[in-house]
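How a chain folds remains the central question behind the approach discussed here. No coordinates are needed to read the tokens, only the vocabulary itself. For completeness, the protein is quoted in full, as a sequence line and a line of structure tokens:
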Amino acid sequence: MEGRIPPHNLEAEQSVLGSILLDSDVMDELESFLPSPEAFYLEAHRKIYAAMQALRSQ
């Protein structure tokens, strides 16, 4: 499977991140099935989600 691109949907990733920006309480529900930034395909989205998790835990 080397060299294959995993399935991804950048618009869906953007929608998830946008929903967190609009309502941070959404993060409680999302963390149950998106526990790690590695769930995102785009590196920038991983970094944004990790930052959101860090801010949420403060």
